[in-house]
Amino acid sequence: MSSTPSSATPTPAFQRIKDYVQGEIEAGTWGEGDAIPPELRLAAQFGVSRMTVNRALNELEAEQVLVRRKGAGTFVAPQRYQATVVEIRSIAEEIRARGHRHRSALFRLERQRATRMLATQFGVAERSMLFHSVILHYENDAPIQVEDRWVNPALAPGYMEIDFGAVTPNEHLMRVAPLQRAEYQIEAQLPTAEVAEMLAIGEAEPALVLRRRTFSRDAVASLVVLWHPGKRYRFGGALG
Amino acid sequence: MSSTPSSATPTPAFQRIKDYVQGEIEAGTWGEGDAIPPELRLAAQFGVSRMTVNRALNELEAEQVLVRRKGAGTFVAPQRYQATVVEIRSIAEEIRARGHRHRSALFRLERQRATRMLATQFGVAERSMLFHSVILHYENDAPIQVEDRWVNPALAPGYMEIDFGAVTPNEHLMRVAPLQRAEYQIEAQLPTAEVAEMLAIGEAEPALVLRRRTFSRDAVASLVVLWHPGKRYRFGGALG
DNA sequence: TAGTGGTCTAGACCACAGC
DNA sequence: CTGTGGTCTAGACCACTAT
Questions:
Q1: pTM score
Q2: Which of A110, A118, B32, B83 could form a disulfide with A114 if both were Cys (CB 3.0 to 4.6 A apart)?
């Protein structure tokens, strides 16, 4: 990965040092929690200045390979947090990436007063006005996702005037209410009668449900429930 | 976050520059794709050397806030990839984090020859030997996860001798076969009769299923299917 | 007190982009 | 060609840790 014989830029010194350190860790020479040689020693070993070593080790710390403690030393980081990270892209983007055709149908678009549960979720007063939309997304004419969304009018006042055929709610919200934070839950549920009909599945067929609450400017911008047919849809991702 | 009046170390210059750049971006002064001032200009503006500015901007590039092009300039990075990232922790860790009690029961531990499908998944010859374990995890005595796992003996030869009461398969595998890469899928399915019985749910109740394939030393180390009762379990996470 | 990392400088030479 | 970022140096002073 770092040896093109001619014409290419030679591997930078800081990169060679990073490779060396990672190699020793992978080979097991330096185990979890062990101290690695101090900057000055590595600088002498590689014939570079301390700043160059400093950069290499700082980058490895940012990559969670090392832990550095001022005055104490540099140590091999503890085992990586064993988390499974699943990426879920916007449905339209995902479908187009598969080379398929995406279209959507707007089933409902209305102003509604917040129930107690919605008010709690949004952090607004009960009976506050909220926007509500229900959209069915198709992949090559097969229904693939029901998007049941509630929107905070304070953050997206123009929501009711979007051309939902051209812009997905997600795209509009990303533009008017920059994403600050989000919370997600994934569940397996039986669909409601209405959802089952929209997705053209049986009421006894499991649905894969994603609930997401997005925050913007320190307020809840949107609450969305995405329903997918369990038989035809899955979330997937890769890590590493 | 960076103003403790006395005794504390003053905010480093590179950090002040990072804050300034992020502030201008958040304020909208510099929009997506715009060029920001070159290093020398910022160095003069802040009265620091170019190396200090260089560090600040390099870190912002690593954080995907900026994009830098040699010879061309430094630009505000395009809108963040709109992905939903869901973290799924090891079940034992997750249960303990909730302050609940975790225990597990080993239902099956055997050597099995790879079926064609397993052989394909593992990238080994059909009828190669694989380890197979089935473990039921409990949260406060309620069954919460069925862990159906296949393991590559080449990468974890000691798998059959683990004390599964003390070490989870995950912990063992992390130790002997350092995680290189992983692939995941999340599905909503009806459980098999056996799984339904283990989880003490009805066969018509949806299950939330996570399939994961982990790689180590350029080979498939393990293939696991995790079944959860849809009613009592969900994956969740936060982003931002 | 000695050793370590945190930060910074004032230069330098290079490769590359755009005119 | 000029301006940009990429990399590097040989020092420096500081704060912190460990002994």
A1: 0.79
A2: A118
